[in-house]
């Protein structure tokens, strides 16, 4: 374990974690940070969330959850027990034993990694870092961020040394919003660090609340695990999206082909086409890997092609909508189109990178008279104009020239929609197995 002083830092932190006496500071109370903070609070740790959005910090302290996967009652139990509170003050770091970073890692307009949040937070930590603290990065990023970006900032500004004075690890989040089966507690957790002491203490911390923790040899390996997981999904979605484009050309039903192919009991995994990809991971993470590869003069052609195909889908949906309108003898500029669903995923109030909004933007720019319905998002902005969700009445549906299903929320009665609509374009395949008038429906 090295010299006595290092052993003392390690053993004291380990004891406080095992006895649930460690104070946990979670930086960023978004879709990853808030569920993580609640889970640690439920396990008995004292948790403070540092959230730079004062409104969000206030909501946490008032037990008002803004994250779908955490109910206000669940949040309230942790807050009222005195185990969880939120603050906007980075000085909370000084009293923490474990600091967990859950900040966004977006892309720039040129599709390159934007690490400004990680760099800013790491700098704030470095000016308050004390011996014996563990810092764990959960944000998805390219391989090398923890060691090559964070560690130099922490060591330079604090004068402390990783593995000797403080501990640093990467454990990428594996949050699937809306998934009722796999939660923070029962989703396998990958943990990596570039020195043995940091890895051991990080494993100890995560094992307190997560059923199965998977160690890897370095932070860099853990970072690559995460971006590969999401790149895997992006590539397979691109494959079925390209199949949908081909089936459209040769007049075949892509859903029939996929449903039949998925009856094979081995060697295949179900993926389905749609209007594009959205959310916090799939549209973004492959570009982190693509960018890192270029740094070592390696061209990830497969990944780049998958991104290109997925980005084509909103435009394809637009063109297919116009094709349906033309068949009805209606010019797009004269058409009234209702889009069902604005979020990127069913049954969630999350519209980040939503392809539904991309489709709406394209339609709006073509002068379509656009409306939308989404109980999860009562108001959105499309191409600079604020739109409000409208009610699905028989009269409203009958007024529309086309109803376009962009997100297949479970709360929508699709047979009712088809019954009252003139025509439906279904980009999610939700109507194909329902008892409804399929002559009105065009599938993607």
TrEMBL record:
One family name in Pfam for this protein: UDPG_MGDP_dh_C
Domain UDP-glucose/GDP-mannose dehydrogenase C-terminal: 338-433
Biological processes per GO annotation: polysaccharide biosynthetic process
Domain of life: Bacteria
Keywords, in A-Z order: NAD, Oxidoreductase
Signal peptide: none
GO molecular function, one term: oxidoreductase activity, acting on the CH-OH group of donors, NAD or NADP as acceptor
Similarity comment: family membership: Belongs to the UDP-glucose/GDP-mannose dehydrogenase family.
Protein name, entry field: UDP-N-acetyl-D-mannosamine 6-dehydrogenase, putative
Species per Swiss-Prot/TrEMBL record: Acaryochloris marina (strain MBIC 11017)
Taxonomic lineage from the root: Bacteria, Bacillati, Cyanobacteriota, Cyanophyceae, Acaryochloridales
């Amino acid at each position: 374990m090295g010299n006595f002083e290092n052993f003392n830092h390690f053993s004291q932190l380990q004891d406080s974690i095992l006895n649930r006496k460690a104070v946990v500071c979670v930086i960023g109370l978004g879709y990853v940070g808030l569920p993580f903070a609640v889970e640690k609070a439920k396990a008995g740790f004292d948790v403070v969330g540092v959230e730079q959005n004062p409104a969000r910090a206030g909501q946490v302290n008032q037990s008002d959850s803004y994250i779908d996967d955490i109910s206000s009652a669940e949040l309230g139990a942790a807050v009222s027990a005195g185990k969880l509170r939120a603050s906007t003050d980075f000085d909370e770091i000084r009293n923490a034993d474990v600091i967990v970073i859950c900040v966004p890692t977006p892309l720039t307009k040129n599709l390159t990694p934007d690490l400004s949040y990680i760099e800013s937070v790491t700098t704030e930590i470095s000016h308050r870092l004390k011996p014996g603290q563990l810092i764990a990065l959960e944000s998805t990023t390219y391989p090398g961020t923890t060691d090559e970006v964070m560690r130099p900032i922490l060591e330079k500004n604090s004068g402390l040394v990783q593995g000797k004075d403080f501990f640093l690890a990467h454990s990428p989040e594996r949050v699937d919003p809306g998934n009722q089966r796999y939660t923070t507690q029962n989703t396998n957790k990958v943990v990596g660090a570039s020195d043995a002491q940091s890895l051991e203490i990080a494993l100890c911390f995560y094992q307190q609340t997560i059923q199965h923790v998977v160690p890897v040899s370095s932070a860099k390996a853990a970072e690559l695990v995460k971006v590969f997981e999401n790149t895997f999904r992006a590539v397979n979605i691109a494959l079925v999206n390209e199949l949908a484009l081909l089936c459209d050309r040769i007049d075949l039903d892509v859903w029939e082909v996929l449903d039949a192919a998925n009856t094979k009991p081995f060697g295949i995994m179900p993926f389905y086409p749609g209007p594009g990809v959205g959310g916090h991971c799939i549209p973004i993470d492959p570009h982190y890997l693509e960018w890192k590869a270029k740094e070592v003069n390696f061209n990830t052609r497969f990944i780049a092609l998958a991104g290109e195909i997925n980005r084509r889908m909103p435009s394809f949906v637009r063109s297919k909508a116009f094709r349906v309108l033309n068949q009805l003898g209606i010019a797009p500029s004269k058409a009234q189109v209702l889009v069902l669903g604005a979020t990127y995923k069913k049954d969630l109030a999350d519209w980040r990178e939503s392809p539904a909004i991309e489709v709406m933007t394209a339609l709006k720019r073509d002068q379509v008279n656009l409306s939308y319905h989404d109980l999860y998002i009562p108001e959105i902005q499309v191409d600079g104009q604020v739109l409000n969700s409208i009610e699905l009445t028989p009269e409203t549906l009958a007024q529309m020239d086309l109803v376009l299903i962009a997100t297949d929320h479970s709360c929508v009665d699709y047979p009712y929609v088809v019954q009252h609509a003139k025509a439906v374009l279904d980009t999610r395949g939700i109507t194909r197995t329902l008892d409804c008038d399929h002559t009105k429906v065009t599938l993607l």
